Amino acid sequence: MTVVLERPYEFVPPHRGNLWPKLIQSFRLIDWHLRRTECVVDHECRNLDRFAESVRNGNGVMLTPNHCRYADPIVLGWPGRSIGTHLYAMAAWHLFNTTAFEHFALRRMGAFSVHRETSDKQSLDTAVNILTEAQRPLIVFPEGTTNRTNDTLKPLLDGVAFMARTAARRRAKQSEGDVVIHPVALKYLCLGEIQSWAAEQLAELELRLGWHKAPALNVVDRTIRLVEGMLALKEIEYTGRSSSGELPPRRDALMYHLLETAESALGLNPPEDPDVRARVRLIRAEVVKQHFRATPDQQRAQKDRLQGIADQADFAQNLLSFPESYLTRGHVTDTKLLETIQRIQESIYGKASETMPLKVIIDFGEAIPVPPERAPKGERDPVMLNIEDQLSHMIRLLAEEAKPIG
């Protein structure tokens, strides 16, 4: 769920006190939560001294991790606990609309909401104030959304540098020190045996699709076959028939069909920006706008239609999470296979099987000093380029620690 139609957006501020975060750390509640819900049972912090030094120097500190799993913001509590600091984190609005307990827990852990489909001034101001005051480090995921492709980095959102530069200007005026950004590479490694786990999950998925006889194929080829089957079913669902040919162009054709159909249903003009994520954000924003612009009776009548359009846009974005070369023969690892199967499960069930024990490596990049001056016009912000370069390099190195599958 990424669009909330139960009530209009209302900014959720972070809990500012230290008692709850201290209790969470003291009783190791994040360990329990990660083990129980995400099957993340171990962790390793690397280059933690870089992070500790920035905090010790009194800098405004922003952490910019890659975002490959729902566990990401929680696992960052481990390095925070190691150096004796609490954290704030910017989190999508829909995460605060699951259960009352989730809403309560997220706030107590330092999270505050951001409405990704609009310009959320309150959220941006909160982030800038946190960096200016430098009471705690701030987590912002520069990719914006999560997917299960741990070895790839999606395009980064420039708003990260905007927030950091704004805070740097304020701190410079107040002579209070620097603002720095630490890219953080997160890599999840399988601790269990992937072949038996994959075979069990694939058998369940094949039965779900009505395939009662397991093929005489290895788990990688079975996974590719399942991706093809799922894509064919989705083509029939949304276009009325399945197509043939290579998977990447079929995926792209379905993705753009979903976007064009959703835009047409909402009366949106063809976009100038062909970027899929930008188009999805516009669709989500228009869904929310049309819903809350209507009368209560109209809202009830249109809710299912608008929710369906939003879900359609979400699935188009989900298709981006199936990279073309992720399961290229000779380059497959246990973590790539795990992620692909879990993406299929999310597409079919709405939820992945978190039963493979995982260890997360949390690697801190070099501090990037943020200048108070505005970025050069007509160029990509050098701060964003630095974040991207460091993250890409660290992720590439960490990918080599996964176990290859022959």
What does this structure look like?
With about 400 residues, this protein is α/β, with parallel strands linked by helices. The protein folds into two domains: about 20-190 and about 355-400, Glycerol-3-phosphate (1)-acyltransferase (3-Layer(aba) Sandwich); about 195-350, no CATH class. Helix content is about 50%, strand content about 10%. The chain has helices at about 20-25, 30-40, 50-55, 70-75, 75-85, 100-110, 120-135, 160-175, 195-210, 220-240, 245-265, 275-295, 295-320, 335-350, 380-400, and strands spanning about 40-45, 60-65, 90, 110-115, 140, 180-190, 360-365, 370. Helix 12 runs antiparallel to helix 13 (about 295-320). The relative contact order is 0.17.
